[in-house]
Specification:
The complex is a heterodimer. Chain A is of the alpha/beta class. Chain A is built from 28 helices and ten strands. Chain A has helices spanning 24-32, 76-86, 105-116, 129-134, 141-148, 163-171, 186-200, 210-218, 223-242, 244-264, 269-286, 289-305, 307-319, 329-335, 339-345, 352-361, 371-381, 386-413, 435-469, 477-488, 492-513, 515-527, 534-542, 549-557, 569-574, 587-599, 604-614, 617-645, and strands at residues 12-18, 36-40, 47-55, 58-64, 95-101, 122-127, 138-139, 151-154, 201-202, 424-426. A seven-stranded mixed beta sheet of chain A has the order 2-3-4-1-5-6-8, with helices on both faces. In chain A, a hairpin with a 2-residue loop joins strand 3 (47-55) and strand 4 (58-64). In chain A, 47% of the residues are buried. Chain B is an alpha+beta fold. Chain B has helices spanning 37-45, 76-79, 87-90, and strands at 16-18, 27-33, 53-58, 63-67, 70-74, 82-86. Chain B has a six-stranded antiparallel beta sheet with strand order 1-6-2-3-4-5. The chains are: A alpha/beta, B alpha+beta.
Chain lengths: 646, 91
């Protein structure tokens, strides 16, 4: 979760504002680099990145406001930008930098006019000047600034050219009173913009045919769909191929850290909590960090190329049949990383009814938090066939997408009747993606994930460990007898076997009598038709807080199981046993559990975000109950069918 | 606020055609729209306001138009409700 923005008073507060796709975030990354973090605007769920930058002994805090076309639009993003400029929810800014696309001055001058009407010192940063020059435009920045009454600086966010000049302009931001057209009078604003452009800009913008040709291919009904399928296949293939090595490495490191710490700490509760609780539990989540990083990195690259807007049109043909607009595709793609930013990204869907429908179905798309569970269960189901495992993995994504579309269809026929609003979307120019921007976005997202793993998930695994370790149960007589037999036998191998068996009996008895065991057994009847024992029931219940906790929970609950030794965390879970000695993850149960996790709303923060975004508990509770019931029914059917077949 | 004129205000003439019937590479100006307030507001913010001139890059689904350096993708439901005048006859 993100934290509210707190404006420090020591440093200068600078807002970055501008239209979408003008290079605002690239400039922010150039100014702040890694010295930034994602936060929420006060009183809203709108995310923004804030970062610091020092130049000539002056420290500045930059806030990257969301890209908007107008401050006077009725949507939440415009409202947030307005409040930030006015200092309604936070300290008023010391200055605002309006980033303006030099190739598109007329449209960008609308927001410039709106900012100049505010009583805030302003600097204009002209981006894409190089493209404008290549296209035949020359801009006299000094003259432009004189006419506007503020500094105008040409910047190249990718190379950093002009950033020093921007800092110097911010040292003494100018705000001369110049006649401005009234806001909202589009004809008058355009006349003003035309006069400004005529006085400071030379040449005519040449528009090439390259973009036309590429757009024809990318938005073509058949070719466009083929390109889309190719891009998405490449995206997910890259993620699963490239992430394998770092995932193994993380698993290996945590395994050795556990062994080392276990050897150093004396036997006792602290030893068990650190080794079986903290290390085992956190490892079960952090091992999937490489996949999450790759997903965010590739989505950021794709977004930067300008392709995603075209893909939205390709998807519009499909999504409209289910009552969703093409814009929903962007939240759905984000949902493959995490449902929370996806639900927030649904703000780009302009119509409220479309937006609510998008929010309701977004959590069906397989997020990265489900990956740990998929990897575990697909591994159990197809242990000897990587091809079938890959197919099952793909099937999970398809099942989630089908469930989302099916649900959207039902929603648009019942609770939100009607069709989606027709698409109208800006198609940004094609660009080479910025590796730096993608890297910084990935670092930011990875940090949020790690903070989550280090706080919420850590807390949950420690609580789980405690629940599974207390109350202390006396050692069963059978275990005592086995240990006595081991102490008198003359054969070392037999002694070891007896001791292992005794440990296992003691561990099972402890777990069964613990608070976690009691909780699992209490709820077990509700999940028994799906094939889950009490351990899996505990896993399902705790993963309600966050899906990825499931693997951590099972890791904690099976950590003391000595039936399997010298294997990694994942293998240890796969081989874990029920009280009756059967494997916890037999094929029907694993299949049923896989379906359950594809369809169930196992994520407390998502429910909270749905409530905030829809401003209603009704939608959040409808989403939760619908997904849970659907997951239960589908899992029951799966368990019954697979049990019959196997 | 940039707001497009409601549908009934301007007079329609014989030279007005729906955007969905404009030919590729033709330039035209927006004459009138039959869109609701939010849709008009969104289009105007992106540069497609009344009397804005543009070039049609691609007809179909989506219809792609270019207003100076801005490329907009519009679905058929939108283009059929925007009446435009070809630049040759608009003035």
């Amino acid at each position: 979760m993100t934290t509210p923005v707190v404006q420090p008073s020591a440093a200068k507060s600078i807002l970055l504002l501008g239209n979408p796709n003008v290079g605002k975030t690239t400039l922010f990354n150039r100014l702040c680099g890694l010295r930034s973090a994602t936060a929420n605007f006060p009183g809203s769920t709108v995310e923004a990145r804030r970062g610091s930058s020092s130049y000539a002994n002056t420290k500045r805090i930059f806030t990257d406001l969301p890209g908007i076309y107008s401050l006077n639009a009725t949507d939440e993003l415009s409202s947030v930008c307005c409040r930030a400029l006015d200092g309604t929810d936070c300290e008023p800014p010391d200055a605002v930098v309006v980033i303006v696309d030099a190739t598109n001055l007329r449209r960008n001058l609308t927001i410039v006019n709106e900012v100049l009407h505010k009583d805030v010192p302003c600097v204009l940063a002209l981006s894409m000047v190089d493209i404008a020059q290549k296209s035949g435009l020359t801009i006299d920045t000094e003259k432009f600034g004189e006419k506007l009454g503020c500094h105008v600086v040409a910047v190249h966010p990718r190379t950093g050219q002009g950033v020093a000049s921007l800092h110097e302009a911010l040292d003494k931001p100018k705000r001369d009173a110049k006649p401005l057209p009234p806001i909202g009078e589009s004809k008058v604003v355009n006349t003003w913009a035309n006069e400004l452009i005529a006085s400071s800009v030379g040449g005519e913008l040449a528009t090439g045919t390259f973009t036309d040709r590429v757009d024809k291919a990318f938005t073509h009904p058949i070719l466009g769909m083929f390109v889309f399928a190719l891009v998405m296949t490449g995206l997910f293939w890259t993620i699963f191929t490239l992430a394998a090595f770092p995932m193994d490495l993380v698993d290996f490191i945590f395994g050795h850290v556990g062994t080392f710490v276990g050897g150093v700490l004396p036997e006792g509760d602290l030893h068990d909590m650190v080794v079986d609780g903290v290390i085992s539990g956190v490892a079960g989540t952090v091992v999937f960090l490489p996949q999450i990083c790759l997903l965010f990195f590739l989505i950021s690259l794709l977004e930067d190329t300008g392709y995603l807007a075209r893909a939205a049109f390709v998807m519009d043909r499909l999504l409209r049949k289910f009552g969703l607009p093409g814009q929903s595709f962007v939240p759905f793609l984000s949902a493959h990383a995490c449902a929370i930013p996806a639900i927030m990204a649904a703000r780009i869907v302009p119509d409220r009814r479309d937006r609510i429908a998008t929010i309701l179905v977004a959590p069906f798309f397989s997020c990265s938090a489900r990956l740990p569970v998929y990897v575990l269960l697909v591994g159990v189901l197809f242990i000897d066939s990587p091809f079938l495992a890959g197919l099952a993995f793909f099937g999970c994504y398809i099942l989630g997408a089908v469930a989302a579309l099916f649900t959207a269809f039902i929603v648009r026929k019942t609770v939100i009747p009607g069709t989606s609003r027709p698409m109208m979307l800006e198609l940004p120019t094609y660009k080479m993606p910025s590796i730096r921007t993608a890297f910084l976005t990935t670092v930011d997202r990875a940090w949020v994930f790690l903070k989550n793993a280090g706080t919420v998930i850590l807390a949950i695994v420690v609580i789980l460990w405690w629940l599974s370790a207390y109350p202390k149960i006396s050692t069963p007589q059978s275990a005592i007898s086995l240990r006595e037999a081991a102490s008198i036998t003359s054969q070392p191998e037999e002694a070891e076997r007896l001791l292992t068996e005794a440990d296992s009996i003691e561990y099972t008895a402890q777990l069964s009598g613990s608070f976690a065991g009691q909780l699992g057994k209490f709820f077990e009847p509700a999940f028994a038709p799906l094939g889950y024992d009490w351990k899996l029931t505990v896993g399902v219940l705790t993963s309600f807080a966050a899906r990825e906790v499931f693997v951590s929970t099972i890791a904690v609950l099976t950590a003391g199981d000595d039936n399997v030794e010298n294997v990694g965390v994942i293998q240890k879970i796969e081989y874990a046993k029920r009280d009756d000695g059967e494997r916890i993850f037999n094929i029907p149960t694993a299949a049923s559990l896989l379906v359950f996790f594809v369809l169930a709303m196992q994520c407390l923060p998502t429910i909270a975000v749905t409530k905030r975004e829809t401003n209603s508990w009704n939608w959040a509770l409808l989403q939760l109950s619908y997904m849970t019931v659907l997951a239960w029914i589908a899992s029951f059917v799966t368990f019954t069918i697979v049990s019959g077949v196997v | 606020m940039t707001v497009m004129t409601p549908i009934l205000t301007p007079k329609l003439d014989q030279h007005c055609i729906p955007l969905s019937q404009l030919g590729e590479s033709e330039t035209a100006v927006v004459h009138v729209t039959d869109l609701d307030f939010d849709e008009r507001e969104a289009l105007a913010a992106m540069g497609l306001y009344q009397d804005a001139s543009f070039k049609l890059c691609q007809q179909g689904q989506p219809c792609i138009i270019q207003i100076e350096a801005t490329r907009l993708g519009l679905s058929r439901e939108v283009t059929s409700r925007i009446l435009v005048r070809r630049c040759g006859v608009c003035n």
